[in-house]
Amino acid sequence: MLAVGFLLLWSCEKDYVPKPKGYNRFILPAHEYQPLPDTLPYQFEYSKHARLLKDTSWISDRYWVEIYYPQIKANVHVTYKQVNSLDSLKDYLNDAYFLTAKHQIKAYAIDEAISTTPSGKAVVFAELEGEVPSQFQFFTTDSTENFLRGALYFNTRVQNDSLKPAIEYVKIDIVHMMNTLEWTNSDSEKN
């Protein structure tokens, strides 16, 4: 009895420490893919858990699309440009690097990697770390006719460290998109 009384007195003297805030929990589905409609000059497989939307930004172009993930409020903005000359290709490449570099103000790291797809296409991936609006960007070109660029955005105020599982999930889908990319308007290259 004396021990119980001692424990009650001892337990009452402890300061209450609240639990730290928890992170969002994402329950993400298994990766499944479907093809784009054949009305675009490019073709790839995108997630069955995403919706394909027409880009509605004020600067949108005919073949620009958004791949929207409603469950995690993420968008992959995909832009496409026809390469008409070496000068236009240089402009598109400069724009791609400039748009990534704009995030240097908030990014504490921008890791770029060049990857080769199974069909031999070179894709530049840029992973941005920090509280940036776009956490993952990419582009590829055949250097003569086609240029495709994309960027991942989340329509949420949640901090990027909390979004890490969702970012990793969409990155897998983006890599799959690039690994299945084919140019459909080119007679010289059917990859």
Automatic annotation (TrEMBL):
Q: What Pfam family does this protein match (any one)?
A: GldD_lipo
Q: Which organism is it from?
A: Fulvivirga imtechensis AK7
Question: What's the protein name?
Answer: GldD
Which InterPro entries does the entry link to? GldD-like (IPR019850)
Q: Classify the source by domain of life.
A: Bacteria
